Amino acid sequence: AIDPNFEQSREQVGEEDGVAVWGPVEPPEKQGIRGTHVAVDFDICLADGACLEDCPVDVFEWVDTPGHPESERKANPADEDQCIDCMLCVDVCPVDAIDVDPG
Ligand code: SF4
Ligand code: F3S
N or C, fewer C-beta in 10 Å, the chain? Predict the structure, then answer.
């Protein structure tokens, strides 16, 4: 599962399309955690897609990650600012790749 304390245990190594990237990142095998309020561990995500289907405000967008061992696309929390903290995505992700930090 995603480490809920990633903001302490990891370093922000950059930003992609306005979404924070938390390392370590070594493409294609290591993609790190993306997002802050809504965070997705790209190294755990296996592209189930439930988060994209169920988020009522469409926070997530597919991004391609060719060559990643778990899946070749990931759910990027591109519109995390829109999140209403309903926690649906956290509940439906089969591999607990998502952390939402209300407040
Ligand atoms: Fe979308 Fe709810 Fe998850 Fe926020 S907590 S990203 S609103 S499903
Ligand atoms: Fe990935 Fe979980 Fe969404 S596996 S696509 S973060 S439901």
Answer: C
Residues contacting 70, CB < 8 A, separation 6+:
43, 44, 45, 46, 47
CATH number at residue 25: 3.30.70.20
Q: State how many domains the chain has.
A: 1
Q: How far is the CA of 13 from the centre of ligand 2 (A)?
A: 22
pLDDT tens by residue, 6-40: 999 999 999 998 999 999 999 999 999 999 999 99
Q: How far apart, in Å, are the Cα atoms of 71 and each of 13, 84, 93, 103?
A: 22, 27, 14, 31
Residue 48 is assigned to a structural domain of this protein:
yes
Closest ligand 2 atom to the C-alpha of 60? 3
Minimum-distance ligand 1 atom for the alpha carbon of 38:
6
Asked, for residue 103, whether it belongs to a domain, the answer is no
ipTM computed for the complex:
0.99
Atom of ligand 2 nearest to the CA of 47: 5
